[in-house]
Amino acid sequence: MDDLRANRILHAGIIGVLVNVLLSAFKFFVGIASNSVSVRMDAVNNLSDALSSTITIFGIKMSGKAPDRKHPLGHGRIEYLSAVSIAAVILFAGASSLIESIRKIMNPVAPDHSVIGMVIIAASVIVKVALGLHDLSRGKENKSDALCASGKDALFDAMISTSVLAAAIIWIAFGINLEAPLGAAISLYIIKSGIGMVMDTSSEILGRRVDPELAKSVKEIITSFPQVFGAYDLIIHNYGHANLIGSVHIEIPEDMVAADIDALERSIAEKVYDETGIAMTGISIYARNKSDEFVVMARNEIMRIVGEYPDVVGMHGFYADEVAKSIRCDVIISLDCKERQRIYDEVVSRIKSIRPDWDFHIILDADISD
Asked: Which domains does the chain have, with CATH numbers?
């Protein structure tokens, strides 16, 4: 499936390069024949657009390289760098267009639109829209940020050309010159979209929160095993398409022996991988006490305290050792809370007051995947 995906993205990238090169050659020839500077400049612009598709091709080829000693988890994240690079190209195009539009606003010049130039622009818009929609469709189908970015680049270019065409029609029909204001407005939109693309892709590189539906699915698989009472602290690292590495805490009976735990962890890892493609490289355990009167009372007292704080979203990993007189658990405080440390300190203080002569080991946890 990965080879098929790579071939599809590569094919779309090659189409993008060929289309832009052919458009550039055609516009340049017509520009020379008609002595039109604007058409020749548009030809150069198409050559720069071919860069986006070239980056996509480079990215998919490099991301498919086999793991090596320096990169034991492969090179899949190069696709994200490709998407950021294309977004940078989009930002440059938007900024260049904005600067040119501002110059025309400051020093207005009566436009000189030829029929042949308008026909070429209209044809270019149709081709660019078709190319952009094709790349977007392929990008979404194959989950390629770089190909989606390349598709958006083509559509943004079509938007700029459409604004030029619309301004030309308005000028010819009404004598009103809106080329520069329209160009400036669309340029600002393109710059805003380019910044958004950079931020979205950067989030993937930095480590975006696990998709809630995927997290729910993985936890349901894990808790389908009768020995598992709960699954917590699920973390999924993304090293590129179809290369996901996960870790999780599971709560199991306190009297399970090492051999049984080993067998359980292997079974969990195998089932999660078969059903989601996620390699669970780390499965840690919380021991659950046998339900006696003291354990139930201590757990309920702690739950009552944490329940009084809206920013405390839960507690897990509870274990009471009556012999050592110690209790350990994790308190989960929302990442949206502005005073996490203060609330944690207050909750810990109140919990410790329940049993002043006991040791408490309470970890401040976060709602990573909940």
From this structure: 2-206 (1.20.1510.10), 209-288 (3.30.70.1350), 289-370 (3.30.70.1350)
Question: 91: Cβ–Cβ under 8 A, 6 or more apart, which residues?
Answer: 191, 194, 195, 198
According to DSSP, residue 107 is labeled S
Q: In the structure encoding, which two tokens stand for residue 250, read together? A: 């599971």
Per-residue model confidence as pLDDT tens digits over 274-284:
999 999 999 99
Q: What is the pTM of this model?
A: 0.73
Instruction: For 302-339, give one letter per residue: b (16+ CB within 10 A) or e.
Output: beebbeebebbbbbbbbbbeeeeeebbbbbbbbeebee
- For the four alpha carbons of 266, 269, 272 and 274, in that order, the dihedral sign comes to negative
**Phi and psi (nearest 5°) for 365?**
-115, 165
List phi, psi (to 5°) of 162. -65, -40
Outline where the chain has alpha helix (H).
2-34, 37-63, 78-106, 115-141, 145-174, 179-206, 212-223, 258-276, 293-306, 340-352
Contact 342, 308 (CB under 8 A): no
- The tens digit of pLDDT for each residue in 183-199 reads 888 889 889 988 998 98
